[in-house]
């Protein structure tokens, strides 16, 4: 009888284990959810100890089992799950795995680099392991790194506008696999709009926009030349002072509050020809990142934004040439190997020739620019790479030999990248950067020269403890030499005497650490701290004033006036005049509801120790940089931001919305009628105030299809406040908040690109902004028969609404030609409906009638452009 019972039990167990089920589990599946899937399809029940939490997620990867027998399912799960399943009769027992069980499979590092057809590293390419259903995105150098156990895998690389590339890889140890991907001319709709196809849902970084050169070259601009700097004006939160103006303003900040980096080195001016062109040559630029908030700890020194521009790496295998011929300028680029697979170079140059046409028309005026870019790379071995980047640019401008000006920048940076281990690498840089401005007025027989020069060192380390925990830390130092100007007479009868304005010297140093921690599958936290220190150094003599006030208030005339020095203090070379230090905490977090939706929040404090002296909204070439000191305090920013991010239809569409609030302490303000040029005691016209800005940004993108593009909209307010220092003083604008010169209540951009066929593509850009705040005359008074305007409170009025529509067409005669001479034409119309946007308003008296007049100055009407571009 006992044997009959045992046989029946064996047959019953065999029948039970032969039952088949269909089950799906992943890292987000709890045991309770798994139990329900089994119990709804079989007669099995689960048993477990108190140590097992059924609401916990015990599965380590995504797996789908279709019509699989229970016994085989349990065997498969026991290999990857962190709990142990066992079948006893019609029960499945669950218990914790013992410490003596077989250890998990060894993890190996699969690394490599992704290159495009130009041998340029591809930023933001997707690297996907099919068998593990997991992947990563390449970094700014085109590198990827992913942990995988021993096994054979299919690695797929994909990037918008390029053919997918697959390789079969066998992994038994750490392995390096590089990929080369080719453009897909058949996928007309696969047009690159951002470096990444859609919004990065899980990354903590927010308030950052990335633009690729493919995208930048499609945005129509005046004169028909692609311009990386003008392209960022189509992004939310970014404006400038108007057409043909230099600088840009981010979230209500001033132009000097932007840190502009070229391959990691700072540059102090961003434009040619008073703002008509930027200093960035579109041919050699690889891409740019604009950080508007949530700025990582490795960046510092400015309180508004960071524009990080990178240049291309030269081709390591073939020599290549490309360039373009435009209406007023042309450009040429050459690249190739110094030593195949080890060294490369890339050289690029631009020059304008509008002055030649002026000469032909018997016009003695002249305006031209030229610049040169270079980058050299050498790979000593797999762990050491040395590179050099350089830039030199110059502008020449003169009017009938009565006025002449030259200005420009020089930059050079030497960079050594070293890989200690697969987890730890470093980046050491030394650099030099300067900006110089020279002015000569022959009829007055004098010259004026000024410049800022800086010497710096950066040493950064990156440590990746795991895919979920990374540390970035480093130090940097920057030495400044400010020359505000030297006046030189050019003839013996000049009314000017030689005068050297006081040179200024300063040392800025900092250390930072930044942690990125993926706490759960949904929550990622980045936090860091930057400590900065600034020393204002001699050799310099500082004036002293009664009550320490370089600016005094005259209650009789109700105006601020320059104070009178009552003495001075001399500081020897290298002696400390002033010192400042600040802790700058940073924090950001991201919570992903799923793979398509997340919310993010960030906070950052930043300090800025150098300032541009300019009381105009757009910085001019003669704008002078000055360091913080006894009368000029460092600017301090606190910025808060939060946002909602969503991808639709697998990233075909994306939405990014953000709210921000910025508060800046110690923002420089100027007394009415301030004389800044060649002022050796600039503290006599400066007041310290504060600024704030707040608003909402929206960016909606269509990323794929024959029609791509984006809509960006910003609703914001930027204000400044400079109260009186005593109850009797009114301050500026009666000490109330007044509109900053960078306030744009509404800012709308619509950018579209349509691929008609392989030969023709069309692009458009519509911009609409609120007029810039200005101060209008609100009345006149007469003195000696002359009408003198009386002005309202500062920035109480606005210029008229600013808007224009630009279109461009690109024609490629032989789109399938991939070797030899390749070319394309770009035809553009800037401001197609000839809108006369106001650059400024002036209040004058008509010489004929004596009537008071208001005159509008406009820079551009409709501007046609054409350029011929080639490569071979």
From TrEMBL:
<keyword id="KW-1134">Transmembrane beta strand</keyword>
<keyword id="KW-0732">Signal</keyword>
<keyword id="KW-0813">Transport</keyword>
<feature type="signal peptide">
    <location>
        <begin position="1"/>
        <end position="18"/>
    </location>
</feature>
<dbReference type="Pfam" id="PF13715">
    <property type="entry name" value="CarbopepD_reg_2"/>
</dbReference>
<dbReference type="InterPro" id="IPR008969">
    <property type="entry name" value="CarboxyPept-like_regulatory"/>
</dbReference>
<protein>
    <submittedName>
        <fullName>Carboxypeptidase-like regulatory domain-containing protein</fullName>
    </submittedName>
</protein>
<keyword id="KW-0998">Cell outer membrane</keyword>
<dbReference type="Pfam" id="PF07715">
    <property type="entry name" value="Plug"/>
</dbReference>
<dbReference type="InterPro" id="IPR039426">
    <property type="entry name" value="TonB-dep_rcpt-like"/>
</dbReference>
<dbReference type="InterPro" id="IPR036942">
    <property type="entry name" value="Beta-barrel_TonB_sf"/>
</dbReference>
<keyword id="KW-0812">Transmembrane</keyword>
<dbReference type="InterPro" id="IPR012910">
    <property type="entry name" value="Plug_dom"/>
</dbReference>
<dbReference type="InterPro" id="IPR037066">
    <property type="entry name" value="Plug_dom_sf"/>
</dbReference>
<keyword id="KW-0472">Membrane</keyword>
<comment type="similarity">
    <text>Belongs to the TonB-dependent receptor family.</text>
</comment>
<feature type="domain" description="TonB-dependent receptor plug">
    <location>
        <begin position="202"/>
        <end position="301"/>
    </location>
</feature>
């Amino acid at each position: 009888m006992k044997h009959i019972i045992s046989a029946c039990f064996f047959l019953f167990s065999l029948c039970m284990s032969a039952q088949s089920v269909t089950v799906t589990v992943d890292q987000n599946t709890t045991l309770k959810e798994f139990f329900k899937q089994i119990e709804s399809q079989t007669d099995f029940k689960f048993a477990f100890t108190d140590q097992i939490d059924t609401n916990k997620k015990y599965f380590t990867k995504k797996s789908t089992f279709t019509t699989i027998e229970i016994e085989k399912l349990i065997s498969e799960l026991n290999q990857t799950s962190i709990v142990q399943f066992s079948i006893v009769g019609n029960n499945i027992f669950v218990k914790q795995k013992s410490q003596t069980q077989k250890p998990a499979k060894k993890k190996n590092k699969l690394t490599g680099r992704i290159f495009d057809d130009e041998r340029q590293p591809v930023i933001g390419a997707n690297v996907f392991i099919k068998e593990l259903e997991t992947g990563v995105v390449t970094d700014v150098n085109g590198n990827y790194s992913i942990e995988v156990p021993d096994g054979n895998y299919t690695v797929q690389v994909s990037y918008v506008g390029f053919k997918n590339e697959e390789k079969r890889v066998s992994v038994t140890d750490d392995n390096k696999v590089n990929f080369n991907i080719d453009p897909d001319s058949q996928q007309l709709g696969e047009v690159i709009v951002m470096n990444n196809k859609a919004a990065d849902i899980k990354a903590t970084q927010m308030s950052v926009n990335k633009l690729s050169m493919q995208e930048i070259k499609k945005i129509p601009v005046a004169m028909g030349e692609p311009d990386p700097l003008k392209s960022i004006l189509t992004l939310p939160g970014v404006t400038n002072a108007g057409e043909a103006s230099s600088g840009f303003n981010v979230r209500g900040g001033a132009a000097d509050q932007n840190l502009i980096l070229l391959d990691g080195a700072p540059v102090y001016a961003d434009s040619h020809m008073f703002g008509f062109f930027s200093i960035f040559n579109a041919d050699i630029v690889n891409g740019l990142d604009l950080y508007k908030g949530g700025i990582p700890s490795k960046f510092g020194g400015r309180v508004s934004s960071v524009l990080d521009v990178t240049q291309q790496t030269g081709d390591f295998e073939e020599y290549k040439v490309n360039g373009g011929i435009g209406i007023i300028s042309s450009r040429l680029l050459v690249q190739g190997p110094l030593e195949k697979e080890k060294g490369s170079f890339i050289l690029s140059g631009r020059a304008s020739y509008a002055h030649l046409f002026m000469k032909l028309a018997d016009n003695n005026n002249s305006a031209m620019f030229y610049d040169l870019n270079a980058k050299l790379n050498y790979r000593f071995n797999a762990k050491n790479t040395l590179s050099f980047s350089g830039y030199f640019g110059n502008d020449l401008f003169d009017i009938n030999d009565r006025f002449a000006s030259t200005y420009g920048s020089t930059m050079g940076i030497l960079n050594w990248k070293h890989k200690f281990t697969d987890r730890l690498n470093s980046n050491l840089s030394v650099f030099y950067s300067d900006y110089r401005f020279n002015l000569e007025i022959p009829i007055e027989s004098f010259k004026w020269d000024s410049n800022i020069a800086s010497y710096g060192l950066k040493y950064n380390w990156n440590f990746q403890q795991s895919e979920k925990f990374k540390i970035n830390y480093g130090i940097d130092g920057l030495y400044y030499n400010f020359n505000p100007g030297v006046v030189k007479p050019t003839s013996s009868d000049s009314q000017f005497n030689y005068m050297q304005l006081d040179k200024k010297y300063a040392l800025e140093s900092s250390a930072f650490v930044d942690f990125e921690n993926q706490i759960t599958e949904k929550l990622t936290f980045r936090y860091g701290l930057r400590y900065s220190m600034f020393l204002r150094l001699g050799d310099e003599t500082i004036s002293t004033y009664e009550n320490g006030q370089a600016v005094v208030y005259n209650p009789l005339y109700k105006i601020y006036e320059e104070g009178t020095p009552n003495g001075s203090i001399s500081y020897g070379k290298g002696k400390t005049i002033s010192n400042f230090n600040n802790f700058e905490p940073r924090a950001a977090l991201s919570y992903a509801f799923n793979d398509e939706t997340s919310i993010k929040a960030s906070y950052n404090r930043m300090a800025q120790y150098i300032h541009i002296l300019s009381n105009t909204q757009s910085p001019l070439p003669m704008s002078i940089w000055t360091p913080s000191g006894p009368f000029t305090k460092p600017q301090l920013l606190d910025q808060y931001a939060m946002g909602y991010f969503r991808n639709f239809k697998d990233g075909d569409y994306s939405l990014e919305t953000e709210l921000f609030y910025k508060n800046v302490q110690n923002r420089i303000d100027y007394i009415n009628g301030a004389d800044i040029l060649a002022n050796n005691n600039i503290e006599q016209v400066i007041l310290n105030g504060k600024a704030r800005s707040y608003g909402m940004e929206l960016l909606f993108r269509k990323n794929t299809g024959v029609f791509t593009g984006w809509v960006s909209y910003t609703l914001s307010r930027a204000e400044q406040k400079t109260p009186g220092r005593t109850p009797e003083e009114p301050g500026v604008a009666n000490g109330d908040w007044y509109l900053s010169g960078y306030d744009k209540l509404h800012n709308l951009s619509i950018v579209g690109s349509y691929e008609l066929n392989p030969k023709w593509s069309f692009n458009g850009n519509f911009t609409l902004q609120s007029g810039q705040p200005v101060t209008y005359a609100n009345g006149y008074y007469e003195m000696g028969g002359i009408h003198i305007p009386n002005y309202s409170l500062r920035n109480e009025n606005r210029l008229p609404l600013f808007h224009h529509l630009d279109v461009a067409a690109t024609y490629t005669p032989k789109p399938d030609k991939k070797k030899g001479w390749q070319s394309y034409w770009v035809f553009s119309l800037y401001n197609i409906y000839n809108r006369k946007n106001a650059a400024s308003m002036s209040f004058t008296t008509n010489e004929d009638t004596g009537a008071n007049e208001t005159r509008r100055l406009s820079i551009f009407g409709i501007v046609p452009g054409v350029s011929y571009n080639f490569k071979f």
